[in-house]
Amino acid sequence: MTALTRLIEKEKPGWKVTPVDLQALLEPVDPVYKLTRRVTGSLKRLLRPVAPSLSAIEPWQAQDIYNSALKRGVTTGMGAILPVLQRFIARYATEIEPILAKRWKDPATPRPDLVVSVIPNFNWVLFGALRRALPNVPYATVITDFADCPPHFWMEDQDQIMICGTDMAYRQAVATGFYKPQDIHLVSGMILKDNFYTSAPENALTRQELGLSAERPVALIMFGGNGASGATTYILNQLDKTGLGIDSLVMCGRNAALLKSLEGRPGCRPIGFVDNVADYMRLADFFIGKPGPGSVAEAIHMGLPVIVEKNSNTMPQERPNPDWVRDKGVGVVISSFRKDTGDAARQVLANLRHFRNNIRHNVPENRAVYETVGIFDRYLKGDRHIVPSAQATSAPET
Question: What residue numbers bound the domain in which 67 lies?
Fold first, then answer.
């Protein structure tokens, strides 16, 4: 949402974007928040007289459990969380809808001309609340995954605008029969931050500044903002065993323990949380990491072949992504970072030109953030009969 907001502020000064923190808005019905609020409230009262610093603990929200697991690299069983979340939404829908409807009808809040969702699972209840409060305001969903997986993760049987970042998701949306053809739009990829569209600055980072060789190949390893200590260690050990002299840039995100553990490791430069991932990707030859839609899209946009893992622990919403990588011929899909990374790295480096050629020819240039704002513009002008954006379809594979 940040990338869309920044572009709108830059190119559409007459528009006003009002972000809504759904997690905070729904705290009154979040069972995790309600339970931990009671627990932390009691702990604060007990600790305040004897340990004031510990009394600053805050209650958890449901999403904190998910984020905590990811920070520790735990994805086993994450698929079971989705049905639980969906049942929670269905169970509390009669309480959620009035909260949302009240938010949209609040006289202190500007009446929206368009409501945009960039989150999964909640779209049916968000849409229902909007129709309850403001029945004539259009509702758009920007799918930030490569596909609707599992079903009804993103796509619901309702009158809304669907913006799809892959031909896979576009075909799914058409096949559902849920939407008017003119309301299904294919853009050229996932939404990327603005710094992925800028040229390298004059004072751009160099490999030498980071303590890496200018001649040896460089792998960029990234597992999202929370890092993944276990997987990263396996990958680095596997790369060392290839004998190819591969250097590595490890994006540790907010994982301070991982960052500290890698300091001083030969041929490895750990990087903490940064906003300019694009600048580091410019220094790499290929990408290794989780098959998240954002990281894969960023790497491909920067011309990096990817090595991603797919197995029973891969989160359900990310399982189509390795298939997309394989189908487009833009990387290597393995079943285990612990066992297969070295062979995959050899394959990528031996066929680097081939993979880069596939990136150029099989994947469209990603202009999705600009295309999406253009679609919003046409709807806000009242043109609900625009031609669907199927022209963004990928070129045939070679």
Answer: 19-75
